[in-house]
Amino acid sequence: MLIKSIILGAIQGLTEFLPISSSGHLVIFKSFLDIETQGVIWEISLHFSTLLAIFGVFYKDIFLILKSVCHSFKKLISGESITSIFRDDIHTRTFLLIIIGTIPTVIIAFSFRSSFESLFSKPAVAGYMLLVTGTVLWFTKYSLKADGNKKNLGIIDALVVGTVQGLAITPGISRSGTTIAAATFRGIDRETAARFSFLLAIPVILGAMAMMAKDTVTLKNGEISFLIIGSVVAAITGYISLRILIKIVTIGKLHLFSYYCWPVGLFVILFFL
Predict the structure, then answer these.
(1) Mean of pLDDT values over 61-73
(2) What DSSP string runs through 120-144?
(3) Does the model's pTM come out above 0.90?
(4) How far apart, in whole angstroms, are the C-alpha atoms of residue 194 and residue 182?
(5) By C-alpha distance, which of 163, 195, 156, 199 is closest to 178?
(6) 3-state DSSP assignment of residue 49
(7) Could you give the CA distance from residue 32 to residue 4 in angstroms, rounded to a whole number?
(8) DSSP 153
(9) pLDDT digits (tens, 9 = 90+) for 231-261
């Protein structure tokens, strides 16, 4: 079980940020390795470790956002309108857009929770969704071919990306790949698209962890330690893969991952049908 936990942690860390779907790969490898886990509980626990990777990479952005929000709150108390704050303070605007983008994600997650959970026992579904992910990534060769996009991130953009993030709960759909793609399809530049994608994941992961806290007591005695080991591995590999992905997005080569998603998806479909 120890080796299997390490393997699952490494898979989670590598695939969470690389646009090839961590949930899809976990479902597939758990089927191949015949591992019994606590379903979404195990999935979210490993996601929490990748949250540490996000903090490690974007700690400066997170600090500036929190600092600006505190400063903007003082302005709001002193009588300045929230409209002017939203317009003039880029970090506070990012914070508000994260909140706005989180709303459709939460609505989708709560509305279809049972349906999503049932999909984690169907590896063939992950295969089909990897084909979808690959197709979405392939089209980024056009939206990322030149960094001429200079559109500022707006409310509609945040809602679109947040909706895509909610749908990405489906195993086989890459959260990072589809949210970055959605932002660039909306005309957002590469760097902003990548940064917003990962900052938007923070409140969702924190909320999911809070929801699952009561369920962790149902884990078997030895499974908790294996869960911790897997999470540590996921955090380390997640930090490395996130750094790699940012460089790939910067040079506009996100579409190359479609050539991985397509054959893997087809193989999984044929194997599990």
Answers:
(1) 94
(2) TT-HHHHHHHHHHHHHHHHHHHHHS
(3) no
(4) 11
(5) 163
(6) helix
(7) 11
(8) P
(9) 889 899 999 999 999 999 999 999 999 999 9
